[in-house]
Specification:
The chain is α+β, with helices and mostly antiparallel strands. The chain has one domain: Alpha-Beta Plaits. The chain is 20% helix and 37% strand. The chain is built from two helices and six strands. The strands form two sheets. It has a four-stranded antiparallel β-sheet with strand order 2-5-1-6, with helices on one face. A two-stranded antiparallel ribbon has the order 3-4. Helix 1 runs antiparallel to helix 2. The chain is elongated and about 60 Å long.
């Protein structure tokens, strides 16, 4: 099994969910997060004072899929999230040893 963690722009969440749902991927955890990278935040002016926002709002989407499905999921997320600008996000992939469905006790792929 593979865990895919995608950090995307907040306004791209609905498109990401639709792309995943169209592939039959419905289970996901979505979290509001803040981060920075090459985008390095924003500078604004409030009441005549300049200020910096170093951490920008992002959305983290976590999905666990059966081995072999990760490439399609990564492609789907990338395609709908890409604007070509700095700040589009990142996708991280890791291996999951096991999963347990608490309600039934099912393990492994059956728990997904």
């Amino acid at each position: 099994m593979k865990k895919i963690e995608a950090i995307v722009r907040p306004h791209k969440l609905d498109e990401v969910k639709e792309a995943l749902n169209s592939m039959g991927v419905y289970g996901m955890t979505v979290t509001q997060v803040f981060g920075c990278g090459k985008q390095r935040g924003l500078t604004g002016v409030y009441r005549g004072q300049e200020y910096s926002i170093n951490l920008l709002p992002k959305i983290k989407v976590e999905i666990v899929v059966k081995d072999g499905l990760e490439d399609g999921v990564i492609k789907a997320i990338s395609n709908v999230s890409r604007t070509g600008e700095i700040g589009d996000g990142k996708i991280f992939i890791s291996t999951i040893d096991d999963a347990v469905r608490i309600r039934t006790g099912e393990r492994g792929n059956e728990a997904l």
